[in-house]
Amino acid sequence: MGFMDKLKNKFTQNKETEEVSEKYKAGMKKSRNTFSGKINDLIARYRKVDEDFFEELEEVLISADVGVMTVMDLIDELKMEVKRQNIKDTKEVKNVISEKLVEIYYGDDDEEIEAINMKENELSVILVVGVNGVGKTTSIGKLAHQLKKQGKNVVLAAGDTFRAGAIEQLEVWGERAGVDVIKHSAGSDPAAVIFDGIKAAKSREADVLICDTAGRLQNKVNLMNELSKVKRVIEREIPDAPHEVLLVLDATTGQNALSQAKTFSEATDVTGIVLTKLDGTAKGGIVLAIRHELNVPVKYVGLGEKIDDLQQFDAHAFVYGLFADMLDETEDE
Ligand SMILES: Nc1nc2c(ncn2[C@@H]2O[C@H](COP(=O)(O)OP(=O)(O)OP(=O)(O)O)[C@@H](O)[C@H]2O)c(=O)[nH]1
């Protein structure tokens, strides 16, 4: 059985996996249309797998924002695999491409890297960082909703005291998700808000505290100072916290997201990425570039604006979302 059939089996196994794959399929429609279209076109024009075919494939991948370094590695892997399997016909190459996309995502790591780090029966603290407008507040709301649905008691801390309206916006999401929001007035010290958040979460015996922060990227020194102060406060209260530092990036900003990730990684230890607005771009390959070039796993992806449009990232579901049309060409989309 080819890799694409295996993927299809995996995501049509039961209601739960089907629901996941439907979310990915819907959210990645733009990427899929562009990507599948280009790959199919390539396969129609080149019947034989040769150097020219690989060169054009390279361009298709780069235009999907996969990232130059990642594409180079991917093409090398593909060439080796094609040789090993003695593949001559370009039609057979689809399977190899989809398989290698998953493999290049995981690298040497096991396939559990997307799981969020959570304490059992103890308070877990998640620090959320990222520049303004990337979908930080929205993602915190979605995440709170998701964790609450899993039966967790969630508290939010409105640590973005800098941007006008940020506190109120978080409160709106807190209400939607049905979780409490700890806040101070605008302009106050974010570290003090987070401190109160921890106190409140502890006294309410909460399972998770999600902390919003201000995303001032204009001045890296300020950003570093603020984030390290917030982290110090958290560590003082709970020695092994924060358990996750999630950086929110906007997929529609393409390679700019990569440079933001580099800056934040220098300012703090980012443990995972929340990649928003994947539904709004045709260049979903940015997921692979982030993972491969920064060596930080993508833990969640935003696939729409609604409260349940945040999905735990799953590289198999992602590749399935990219290739779904090619798996079943007769399927009515
Ligand atoms: N289509 C789509 N839109 C999203 C997604 N995530 C967030 N958005 C939208 O992006 C816009 C910005 O989101 P916010 O949450 O306000 O951005 P923010 O990062 O919190 O902004 P700051 O509070 O300034 O940091 C909103 O209109 C959201 O609805 C997503 O996954 N898909």
TrEMBL record:
Q: What is the protein's name according to its record?
A: Signal recognition particle receptor FtsY
Q: Name the UniProt key words of this record, in alphabetical order.
A: Cell membrane, Cytoplasm, GTP-binding, Hydrolase, Membrane, Nucleotide-binding, Receptor
Q: Which InterPro entries match?
A: AAA+_ATPase, P-loop_NTPase, Signal_recog_particl_SRP54_hlx, SR_rcpt_FtsY, SRP/SRP_N, SRP54_GTPase_dom, SRP54_N_sf
Q: How does it assemble?
A: Part of the signal recognition particle protein translocation system, which is composed of SRP and FtsY.
Instruction: Tell me what organism the protein belongs to.
Output: Oceanobacillus halophilus
Q: Tell me the gene name.
A: ftsY
Molecular function (GO) terms for this protein are: GTP binding; GTPase activity; signal recognition particle binding
Its primary localisation, in coarse terms, equals: membrane
- Which GO cellular component does the record give, naming just one? plasma membrane
Say which family it is in. Belongs to the GTP-binding SRP family. FtsY subfamily.
Q: Which reactions fall under this protein's catalytic activity?
A: GTP + H2O = GDP + phosphate + H(+)
Would you say which domain of life the source belongs to?
Bacteria
Cellular localisation: Cell membrane; Cytoplasm
Binding positions for GTP per the UniProt entry: 130-137, 212-216, 276-279
Reported EC number(s) for this entry are 3.6.5.4
What is this protein's function?
A: Involved in targeting and insertion of nascent membrane proteins into the cytoplasmic membrane. Acts as a receptor for the complex formed by the signal recognition particle (SRP) and the ribosome-nascent chain (RNC).
One Gene Ontology BP term is: SRP-dependent cotranslational protein targeting to membrane
Ranges where the SRP54-type proteins GTP-binding domain occurs: 297-310
| Membrane topology of the entry | Peripheral membrane protein
